[in-house]
Design brief:
The protein is of the alpha+beta class. The protein has eleven helices and 31 strands. The relative contact order is 0.12.
């Protein structure tokens, strides 16, 4: 069935890129899975716009003194203004809380909320650098555990994410990488803009950023609410103030490989003085952030501290060096598993290409357009003059489905589990204007075929069998691929082998995979995981404590 669809230490690093002009505006409505979310996004050049619904009249725009007065009232309401000269005296903030974080795009079933982790949360921000450190310790939720994103955790997991100016990195412990032997700092250059945007969309951040934006910031009234819009980090931020001039909601548009143009909406509520010294600086006691219509963060803040001179973000040497190195283009390594069967690796997510008489079947087109297009190009070089006719999608999680649109643009039929088909039909209809992908730039009908329990593809060359993996707690849409002649199984996320001779308790998903192999009476000798390394069935048996057969 077809569906149409140089580092700089002498001065502070620029906090955001100001557009020279906001030249064009258009309106679209974005519908998520369960609700309609809207956002005004004004852009220069190629960026498109989302606005808050259809309006019969555009609200009056005020600038200059009116804008300054609005920002002054908001800063004063937050407690940022101090002294007879009424200056913004707030330079840093730290806040602590507990609640939940969620793994976007990792739901157990399509349309379900993103899976939750219990979390302790600590963030420190310096607005002059600017810099931010978010320190989260997450653990399994209460009750049954379903979905991806690393669930279930074998133990509590600490994640520390840092940005300082134009550098971003992850830490194994606070201050990691500054002293030899003291922890590990892992460069994360691709996360710079996202983390800076997180900084500038905090309550104090939006007021400071709007002030810095000058004439590029605008204030208006929509449905009785005061709206401030300003450019930050290459996009437009929309902020709603409540009747007390406190920041109530912040909306920002971004691109998602699966959902297209999405809105990140952060709401702030329950403002109070949470400092121990009671400094009359207000901060929200409850923060909720949503993406794709579902929460990605929900925390209750219990303590804050401001203007601490020790909230600093020194940059490890290896992080600076990594920023100088140009990012690597997506690379694909090719390994022949059997005649006509190739294992396509070279990244975190692999694919398998299977050659038939006059076409190719590709198992998995993951991540995003960049990875998918690199895989497609590799297939064309490795198996020339044969088109990719089918792409088997193992499950709906975004890291495994983010490249499917590129494959659809190639004319391939997407084979996916039945629950995923209507989901893809719906989300692929959403606009991709902020970062157009291959399918958005060259629209065509996308063919999607649903699999219930089994699908067989065969010709005179070979047979390929697709099965539903029963009993998975990771995703209810999980498919595996079996090549009976080659005795090869392709699977995702059920058994991601790490180093040889893995140790530790059996993983539930790996046990379930083995049970399914036995249930289906598959003579598996080799396993090609979408994550990890090529292994044998005996590696799987060893990992789950079952005797090997030699």
């Amino acid at each position: 069935m077809r569906y149409h669809p140089r580092r700089q230490h002498a001065r502070a690093v620029s906090t955001f890129e100001i557009f020279e002009s906001l030249r064009s505006t258009s309106e679209v409505r974005v519908r998520t899975n369960v609700q309609t979310t809207s956002l005004v996004i004004a852009v220069a050049t190629a960026l498109a716009v989302q606005t808050a619904g259809t309006q019969t009249a555009r609200p009056a725009i005020a600038s200059g003194p009116d804008l300054k007065a609005t920002l002054d009232r908001a800063a004063n309401a937050l407690g940022m203004i101090r002294g007879p000269q009424r200056i913004d005296a707030l330079s840093t903030v730290e806040y602590w809380g507990t609640g939940f974080t969620y793994a976007i795009g990792q739901s157990f079933r399509p349309d379900m909320p993103w899976p939750a982790f219990k979390a302790t949360y600590h963030a420190g921000i310096g607005y002059q650098v600017p810099g931010m450190r978010v320190d989260i310790t997450r653990s399994n939720p209460d009750g049954p555990v379903q979905g991806g994103g690393g669930l279930p955790l074998a133990a509590a997991q600490r994640q520390i994410q840092v940005v300082s100016g134009q550098f971003a990195w992850n830490e194994s412990e606070p201050g990691a990488g500054l002293v030899p032997g003291a922890g590990t700092a892992t460069p994360a250059p691709a996360a710079v803009n996202e983390r800076l945007l997180q900084l500038w969309t905090t309550p104090y951040g939006v007021i400071k950023a709007a002030m810095k934006a000058g004439a590029n910031a605008k204030v208006s009234v929509e449905r009785g609410a005061t709206i401030i819009t300003f450019p930050a980090v290459g996009t437009l931020v929309k902020t709603t103030l409540n009747a007390k001039n406190l920041v109530e909601r912040v909306e920002v548009g971004s691109d998602n490989p699966v959902l297209g143009d999405i809105v990140t909406e952060t709401t702030y509520a329950g403002y109070q003085d949470l400092t121990e010294a009671k400094s009359d600086v207000l901060f929200p006691a409850h923060i909720v952030q949503k993406q794709g219509g579902f929460p990605v963060l929900d925390v209750t803040i219990t303590k804050t501290d401001t203007n601490n001179p020790y909230v600093i973000f020194p940059i490890p040497d290896n992080v600076e060096k990594a920023a100088v190195t140009p990012p690597r283009a997506a690379t694909v390594d090719v390994r022949k598993m059997a005649e006509g069967v190739w294992y396509l690796t070279g990244g975190t997510h692999h694919s398998v290409a299977v050659e038939f008489t006059d076409h190719v079947v590709l198992v998995e087109c993951p991540q995003n357009d960049a990875r998918a297009l690199a895989v497609i190009d590799t297939v064309k070089r490795t198996i020339p003059r044969k088109p990719i006719k089918y792409v088997v999608n193992t499950h709906h999680h975004f890291d495994h489905s983010g490249g499917l649109r590129a494959c659809a643009a190639e004319g391939a039929t997407i084979i996916t589990q039945g629950l995923s088909k209507p989901y893809y039909e719906r989300v692929w209809a959403l606009p991709h204007t902020l970062s157009p992908d291959r399918l958005a730039m060259a629209p065509r009908e996308a063919a999607i075929e649903a699999v219930a329990d089994k699908r067989v593809l065969s010709d005179s060359t070979r047979t390929l069998e697709v099965y539903r993996l029963e009993g998975s707690r990771h995703a209810d849409t999980m498919l595996v691929v079996y090549l009976p002649k080659e005795k090869v199984l392709v699977e995702a996320d059920a058994y991601p082998p790490a180093a040889p001779n893995p140790l530790g308790a059996p993983v539930v998903e790996a046990v379930n995979l083995y049970d399914n192999i036995r249930r289906l009476k598959l003579d598996v000798q080799q396993i090609a995981p979408i994550h990890g390394r090529w292994v044998t069935i005996n590696d799987l048996r060893a990992a789950i404590g079952r005797p090997s057969t030699n």
